[in-house]
C-alpha cells in the first residue's frame, strides 16, 4: 500500500521510547476513528482506492502533528472524542484540498449551490407530489442502491450530506470541518437532499419491480 | 428522464408554510413558536403529515447508513501496516 504523497520525512517524527504512552493512546483513541474518516474520505474522493490513500495520509499527518512538544495543543491525541473526530475530519479535508490531484473526483461540481433554499425545498415538494402521482406508498423502501446514488452526487453536495445526515454531525461542526459558513452548509445540504431524492425516485420508477406495470404482473 | 409533478399553486398558506420549512422543522432548526405552529397544522392536515413523514423517512434512510461500517477492520490494519512500514508508527503499537 503506497502512502504517497509524503509531506515530510518520517524520520523527524519517529517516536523514541518515551513516546510509548503516546503511541498507545494513538492506537486507542485515533485509530478506531478510521472508519469515520474513511466514510468522509469516500464522500470527498468518490472512489474507495483514493479514499484509502486519503485515510492513510490523514492518520500519518495526525500522528506527526501529535508528536510536537505540546501534543495536546498541536495534535489530536488527548482531546475529547467528538473534538478529536472533528479535528481528524478537518485534517482529512485539508489534505484532500492540498493534494486534490492525488485523489480521484468523479461527478461535476459545476452546479452552483447558491442560496436559493426555497427552490430546493420546492423541488422536494415536487418529488413528494410525484410519489403520490405514481402511487408509491413507501418511496424509499427497497432503496438499496442509495449509497451508490449518493456517491454519484457532485462532491459539493455529497460531502455535507454525508457529514450531517449520515455521520450525524451538527451543522456548525460540519461547517467547521469544511471551512465554510453554516448558511452555505445548509444550502449545499438542501441541494444534496433534493438531488438525492430525485435520483432515488428516478431509479425506483425505472425499476420494473416497482412500476405500475411491474406490480400488475 | 423523471418528470416531476408540480406542487399545486393553490396550496393553502399553512401547507405552503410546511413545504417551505419542512427541513428546518425536521432538523429542529425552527424557533419554538414557529415549530409549534407547524406541528399543530401537520397534526390535522393529512397531506402535510404525509409530507413530513416522507422527509423523515428519507433522513432515516440516510441515518441508517451510519450503522454500517464504512471501513473494515482490514482497512484499518492495512493503514497501520503501511504506517509501520514507513516508520511513522512503531511496530509494537
Low-confidence stretches of chain A: 1-18, 102-113
The end-to-end span of chain B amounts to 53 Å
What would the principal axes of the Cα set say about the shape of chain A? Answer: elongated
**Largest pleated sheet of chain A:** none
Shape of chain B: elongated
How much is the radius of gyration of chain A in Å? 21 Å
Oligomer: heterodimer
Please tell me about this protein's structure.
The complex is a heterodimer of chains A (217) and B (93). Chain A starts with 19 loop residues before the first helix and ends with a helix. Mean pLDDT of chain A is 75; it is low at 1-18 and 102-113. Chain A has helices spanning 20-30, 34-45, 48-65, 71-74, 81-98, 117-134, 146-151, 155-166, 171-178, 182-205, 212-216. Helices cover 63% and strands 0% of the residues of chain A. Chain A has 217 residues and is mainly alpha-helical. Chain A has two domains: 10-102; 117-216, Winged helix-like DNA-binding domain superfamily/Winged helix DNA-binding domain (Arc Repressor Mutant, subunit A), CATH 1.10.10.10. By secondary structure, chain B is mostly helical. Chain B has one domain.
Brief account:
Chain A is mainly α and 217 residues long. Helix content of chain A is 63%, strand content 0%.
Characteristics:
heterodimer, A: 217 residues, mainly alpha, Arc Repressor Mutant, subunit A, 11 helices, 63% helix, 0% strand, disordered N terminus, B: 93 residues
Topology:
The complex is a heterodimer of chains A (217) and B (93).
Chain A: H1 20-30, H2 34-45, H3 48-65, H4 71-74, H5 81-98, H6 117-134, H7 146-151, H8 155-166, H9 171-178, H10 182-205, H11 212-216
Helix pairs in contact in A: 2-3, 2-5, 2-8, 3-5, 5-9, 6-10, 8-10, 9-10
Chain B: H1 13-26, H2 32-44, H3 46-64, H4 73-85
Helix pairs in contact in B: 1-2, 1-3, 2-3
